[in-house]
């Protein structure tokens, strides 16, 4: 098949990990006879430096003209000034909103080869397989916000958590559909004991699930309790659906089940148009430029890209198997090495490539 893929490496380790995923995509094209063309775009801090905008129009056009987008990460201390006109993260929020990418799918699967990499006990993490659906274009991230100076010179700032029925319905539907192909359970996470938005979320979830997915088991868990259950009994969860900020926080926490942020990919999907694929982690300024970042999250995001946007299931599975193989042989980047010997970002990319070419 022919496909155009937009590459947006972004900032910090984004550049390092996207380079490794790109090599894998090139190898997929060569091995399976596809024609992939890559177009590069600026996003985040590098885009602010070059154009003054975190998401230049040109990048958006490139993305709209592509079948899928692979993104590294945005942000870093250089652009952290709280009074700056714009921030790198604004570029990411804008691309999600502009492309209507309301569903952020984040699989959290503990590899049998990596149980030692988790700070949690083996009996807790072994066998964990959770699929998060994080709503991505609503909630506190996109509600009305502002800042004003009070008469006494102090300041007040606010953000608004806002959701409408149709925004909740569409993400709940995707979660219900996914559960049907899995263990048929959906957990909805909210704060309905306090927030009006969560009460609407809960009612809408119940209505959609009862009417359209009566065969799927459902439960509600409050966000604070979920933060605990996620690490005390993670095997209780199959599909989890939640609003934007709760999903952001819970999935970073959840990365400690497999053992590292550097292992978790994600897909951001809309009703139509290109999907956006990225690791869940950020630009990791503490390790950027050292060549030690784990590229597996981004390589696995490339596998999700092949599966969801290009419908190349065999190719996606081939990449996932190559990653498994490399981990089964004991190769580790520093984040999952537990102080033992570690390979570099580039070497990990090469090892996956070799394993991919060998099968
Ligand atoms: N999607 C994104 O682009 C995205 C996501 C999260 C954070 N950010 C941005 O990234 C910047 C840094 O944020 P942060 O430090 O809070 O979060 P981060 O995810 O960048 O890093 C958190 C910790 O995890 C480690 N880590 C992350 N990815 C890793 C990898 N692939 N291999 C090994 N270790 C890895 C980092 O070294 C760091 O110690 C901020 O500007 C933030 O806004 C961007
Ligand atoms: C960088 C930031 C805007 C982003 C988010 O909060 O969505 C990140 O943390 C993520 O998880 O993709
Ligand atoms: Mg996050």
UniProtKB/TrEMBL annotation:
PROSITE patterns linked: IDH_IMDH
Top EC group: oxidoreductase
GO biological process, one term: L-leucine biosynthetic process
Key word Magnesium present: yes
GO CC annotation, single: cytosol
Compartment(s): Cytoplasm
Cofactor comment: Binds 1 Mg(2+) or Mn(2+) ion per subunit.
Keyword Oxidoreductase: yes
Catalytic activity: (2R,3S)-3-isopropylmalate + NAD(+) = 4-methyl-2-oxopentanoate + CO2 + NADH
Binding annotation for substrate: 96, 106, 134, 224
Site feature location: Important for catalysis: 141, 191
Purpose of the protein: Catalyzes the oxidation of 3-carboxy-2-hydroxy-4-methylpentanoate (3-isopropylmalate) to 3-carboxy-4-methyl-2-oxopentanoate. The product decarboxylates to 4-methyl-2 oxopentanoate.
Keywords tagged on the record: Amino-acid biosynthesis, Branched-chain amino acid biosynthesis, Cytoplasm, Leucine biosynthesis, Magnesium, Manganese, Metal-binding, NAD, Oxidoreductase
Isopropylmalate dehydrogenase-like domain: residues covered: 4-352
Xref: NCBIfam families: leuB (TIGR00169)
Source organism of the structure: Planctopirus ephydatiae
Binding site for Mg(2+): 224, 248, 252
GO molecular function annotation: 3-isopropylmalate dehydrogenase activity; magnesium ion binding; NAD binding
Stored InterPro entries: IsoCit/isopropylmalate_DH_CS, IsoPropMal-DH-like_dom, Isopropylmalate_DH
Residues annotated for NAD(+) binding in this entry: 76-89, 282-294
SUPFAM superfamilies, A to Z: Isocitrate/Isopropylmalate dehydrogenase-like
Cofactor requirements of the protein: Mg(2+); Mn(2+)
Protein name: 3-isopropylmalate dehydrogenase
One Pfam family here: Iso_dh
HAMAP family: LeuB_type1
């Amino acid at each position: 098949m022919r496909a155009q893929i937009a590459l947006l490496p972004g900032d910090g380790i984004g550049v390092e990990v996207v380079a490794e995923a790109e090599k894998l995509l090139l190898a997929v094209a060569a091995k399976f006879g596809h024609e992939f063309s890559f177009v590069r775009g600026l996003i985040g801090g590098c885009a602010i430096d070059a154009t003054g905008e975190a998401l230049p129009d040109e990048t958006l056009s490139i993305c709209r003209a592509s079948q899928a987008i692979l993104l590294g990460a945005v942000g870093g201390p250089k652009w952290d000034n709280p009074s700056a006109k714009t921030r790198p993260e604004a570029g990411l929020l804008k691309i999600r909103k502009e492309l209507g990418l309301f569903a952020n799918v984040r699989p959290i699967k503990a590899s049998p080869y990596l149980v030692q990499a988790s700070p949690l006990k083996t009996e807790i993490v072994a066998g964990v397989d959770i699929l998060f659906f994080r709503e991505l274009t609503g909630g506190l991230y996109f509600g009305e916000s502002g800042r004003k100076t009070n008469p006494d010179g102090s300041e007040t700032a606010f953000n608004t958590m806002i959701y409408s029925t149709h925004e909740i319905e569409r993400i709940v539907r995707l979660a219900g559909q996914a559960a049907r192909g899995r263990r048929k359970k959906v957990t909805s996470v909210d704060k309905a004991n306090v927030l009006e938005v969560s009460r609407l979320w809960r009612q809408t979830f119940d209505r959609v699930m009862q009417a359209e997915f009566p065969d799927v088991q459902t439960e509600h868990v409050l966000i604070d309790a979920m933060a605990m259950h996620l690490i005390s009994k993670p095997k209780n969860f199959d599909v989890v659906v939640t609003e934007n900020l709760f999903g952001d926080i819970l999935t970073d926490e959840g990365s400690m089940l497999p053992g590292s942020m550097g292992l978790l990919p994600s897909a951001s999907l809309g009703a139509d148009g290109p999907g956006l694929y990225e690791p869940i982690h950020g630009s990791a300024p503490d390790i950027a430029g050292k060549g030690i970042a784990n590229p597996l999250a981004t390589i696995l995001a490339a596998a999700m890209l092949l599966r969801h946007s290009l419908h190349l299931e065999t190719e996606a599975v081939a990449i996932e198997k190559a990653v498994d193989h490399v981990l089964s042989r004991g190769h580790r980047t520093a984040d999952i090495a537990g102080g033992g010997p570690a390979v570099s970002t580039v070497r990990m990319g090469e090892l996956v490539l070799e394993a991919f070419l060998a099968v």
